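Exercise 7. Given the encoded structure of a 222-residue chain, write a plausible sequence.
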């Protein structure tokens, strides 16, 4: 019997929903969500959300940006020439803030104070260990309140796998979700990578994304 022809998995973009109602809350991110929801009653005009890749920083930043009318910019793209336009709405999200040119970052923090504007930084590490040499900037970074996103617990990891699958229009049965959640690393990045890999492999083989396929792929993972 001839082997089943393999299908080519097309690299299609699958947009994840960053709506407030689609944010998955749990003990690992409760403090961060509470801080976002408490705006504008923040302890400082500048706040840092810190956590590993895929931990929900951008989702939380998007929720806050919608509430505050904030603009969103990558730290790598921010320059001193952009500061006034970037703060035009009185609120700004700087993603991957540790990569910002330090002079631009220094002047941004000072300008935000002068203008009574709000800043939300996202980064994988705390501002106190960002690579800066300007002493006054280091002092300002030490004063920024930090909220750290922790790894997901079992329940949140399970819910995250379901959400990621739905975002990709991927129908996973409960036993498949349960298998994945117990055979991958307990992290947001691992959940995202596993769902993408399972989807791609199912397309490549022309199979359904079942528990059996997940077991073939992730038996030795985790």
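Solution.
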């Amino acid at each position: 019997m001839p082997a089943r022809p393999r299908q080519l998995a097309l690299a299609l973009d699958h947009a994840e929903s960053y709506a407030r109602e689609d944010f998955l809350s749990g003990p690992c991110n409760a403090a961060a969500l509470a801080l976002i929801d408490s705006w504008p009653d923040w302890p400082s005009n500048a706040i840092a959300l810190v956590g590993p890749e895929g931990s929900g920083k951008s989702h939380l930043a998007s929720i806050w940006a919608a509430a505050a009318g904030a603009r969103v910019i990558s730290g790598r793209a921010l320059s001193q020439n952009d500061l006034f336009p970037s703060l035009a709405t009185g609120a700004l999200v700087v993603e991957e803030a540790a990569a910002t040119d330090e002079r631009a970052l220094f002047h941004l923090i000072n300008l935000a104070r002068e203008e009574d504007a709000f800043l939300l930084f996202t980064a994988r590490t705390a501002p106190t260990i960002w690579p800066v040499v300007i002493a006054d900037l280091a002092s300002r970074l030490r004063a920024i309140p930090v909220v750290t996103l922790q790894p997901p617990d079992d329940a949140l990891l399970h819910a995250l796998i379901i959400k990621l699958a739905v975002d990709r229009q991927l129908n996973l049965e409960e036993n498949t979700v349960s298998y994945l959640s117990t055979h991958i690393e307990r992290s947001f990045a691992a959940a995202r990578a596993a769902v993408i890999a399972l989807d791609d492999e199912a397309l490549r083989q022309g199979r359904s994304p079942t528990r059996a396929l997940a077991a073939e792929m992730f038996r030795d993972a985790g």
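Remark. The radius of gyration is 20 Å. Students should compare their own answers with the one above.
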